[in-house]
């Protein structure tokens, strides 16, 4: 058994993910199960949400999980074992009003991990996606007119 080790990671900061993955692999030697469960969302009309915020949501919900997965994947492939799980959202399957950036990022993640599942079959690596319905999560109430602050984490 290993003593737990806390490693902080901002999944929306793509530049630090490789270093964190290296730290994890150096510490433990391998990852048996990778659960991608981070998420960021915003509620607002498409025309009210800035492109900058759209990108931040895409970084956290799509590029973050795939970057971390790609960093851990070579180790799993070399060992021919492992399990990768994406905790996603029902909005990765259907879109609803006022959640365009969030739904788009979740659709993209489902597409990526569906393809990855097919590719990893030959290496005996299991890839699963979980798409729960609506959940209660932490929410910061924005000042009027400030959609940038209307982020769920």
From TrEMBL:
Keywords in UniProt for this one?
A: NAD, NADP, Oxidoreductase, Signal
GO terms for molecular function, please?
Answer: oxidoreductase activity, acting on the CH-OH group of donors, NAD or NADP as acceptor
Q: Does the keyword Chaperone apply?
A: no
Entry's Gene Ontology BP terms = intracellular calcium ion homeostasis
Q: Name the Pfam families for this protein.
A: adh_short (PF00106)
User: What protein family is recorded?
Assistant: Belongs to the short-chain dehydrogenases/reductases (SDR) family.
Protein name per Swiss-Prot or TrEMBL: Dehydrogenase/reductase SDR family member 7C
